[in-house]
Predict the 3D structure of the following.
Amino acid sequence: MNKHILTLATVLTLIFFGGGCDYNEDNFEGLQHGTVATDIKRFDYTLTDADYTAIANNSTNKSIASAAGASNVLQAVGTNKYFATKEDAATYIPAYLAATYPVLDNNSSVSVSYTYALDLPENVAAMNAMKEIKNLDYTKVWGEGSAIEYLTPATESKLPDALPTDGLEAGDYVAVTYQYAGTEPTAGGSGSGSGSRTVKPELTSVLGTAALNDAVEVTGYISALSKQGPILTDQGGSVLLYGNNATSHLKLCEIIKVSGTIAQYNNGFQIDAGKATIEQTGQSETVTYPTPTELDGADMDEILETYYNEYHYAQFVKVKGTIAISGSYYNFNVAGAENATGSFYGITDEIKGKIENGKEATLYGYFTSVSKQSGAPKFVNIIVTHVDEAPADVEPVTVATEDRYAVYTWDGSKFTATDNAVLQPSDYTAMGQQHGNITDPDQDIYLPQFLAANYPYGKADDVKYVSYLRYKDKTASWATDEYVFDGMKWVKRSYLETRADQFRKSNNAWKIDPTLELNFLTDGTDEFKAFCQYCANWVYDNIDVVLGAPARDKAGEILSTDKITVNGENPAGTYFVSSYGNNEWFAGSYAYYGEMNWRSDQAKASYENARAKIKEAGLDLNINVPLEGDITGSDIVTAMQKNAAVVFQNVLHYMYPEVTTDNYAKVVINVYNYFSKSEDGVERGIYSYTFEVVENKTGEFKYVEDSFSFLN
């Protein structure tokens, strides 16, 4: 796509359309009156990173993408901050405009500047829309019943077996985060790990006795996991370690040291993980669940009545109930309970997979708190650990593990490893990145260095795809850049282009409208003055000089706002350009005031002189007035209006020399005429001309016959 800079900014304004006049229909063939409208805005806008995120999250766009099987493409818009194609921009920008500007009236238009990928290879587009997989089923590698959740040198090749396929389509790429240990586990399901081990720390007996607001130091182990945070257990009791963001890295059985404060939520004790200090010891403890307290319906109701009398630590319970799932709400009803409803607190995906709506199940887990509904106690919150099976001891896996990353592609039946260069956690550390990712746009600095160090023997034209975690717009997500070796260094190949498309609201819906509008809707603006001077320059070079006027000082320089001079002096003003050098009567553009001025009495001498010269010299020059007989005021006004179409068409060529039909289909120029004269029938107000962009040409425009109209 040709990159171009519009040399004249469009005017940001409101247009008020009104009635027309009989003069136009009588004297200008094809003239159409404007229609009545209310509040119409036209402006330019450039999408920000936040806008791309909003476009990807727009519910209407999600429905459109889902129906087209392109949900990953839409998701990539929010991640990459560009569109894969300009067609995607035309598809997804309208819903964003509808949500952002809900009150704009029909016929409002916005010229939206955005970034899109030009000729982006299909595989690169797919890599930049790849899904992230973190939840692996390691039992597919180690066998059912195994508690080992990592891969080893002997099993790393089996990684594809552990990957879920839900939601994947043929051709999708996935970025996989998996746990890896350099040491094989022992027969008992645990291993010595890599490196030396410290002595296992002694567990405290703090929990169960510490009171509200007590500052505590707890050494305990993780006995249950939930999306609200894990349960922390020491020799004295158990408490919710609230805050999944601060605890999502913790594992079942892991021993940790926590320094924090005993707080409460809904009278259930908890420690706010976000305000606590958590130290991982690298050690584990076997989780032995206590004998559960069994709850029936009466017990559930009693909890509602008495629970708020004091504060409570987490209690391991057993209860039988009927599962009730509604949207994102997971509850259960217990027979005999008149008021109480059980709630799966912070339910994990693992537990979701073990329950079914409407089915009865026996649940085990930690009762943590009671929630209210309409001000009254209602929900008994339980972090469920087991469904329909008595809890068994969970043996720790003590092998030291680390995160590793890999990129695979799915062909519809199997995963295949790519040969992408995938940055690992150690690479980010080596680059001096503190958070396990690269802050955009620093990847353009570090990735060439990474490739030079890891692929030093590249051959000219070798291609390498580099996949990495990029931090952009406050989010870390996977991205892939393509690099080519030029014989000496690795060079990034960019497919991104910037373009501007106009979107118009019609019938209460936004859609792409490849129309460029130049709105000169009032007199005196700098933009209108500049445009009028461009017109005067063109008229002098292409009309007056043909009639015999001497060449001006800046002959051929149409886009100049300097008034016309000849040898440093004002022009003679013999023909159409005035002696002031900034107004002309061929089309009626008046640069001094910044307006159109279709004034027949002022223009008459110019037309009389011009037609006399045409007849005398036998010139082939059409000025749209009769060459014989009297010239009426109406003749002159009509001639200026028709000649304006010729002048505007040619001036557009200079203003937009690189525009093609890839940019716009047509250009509309709305101009304000200041002078009105009743005997000539000309009205003061706004007039419109339409020009089509000539197909297969660059910077060429053609007036659309009969498009001239009076708007207001």
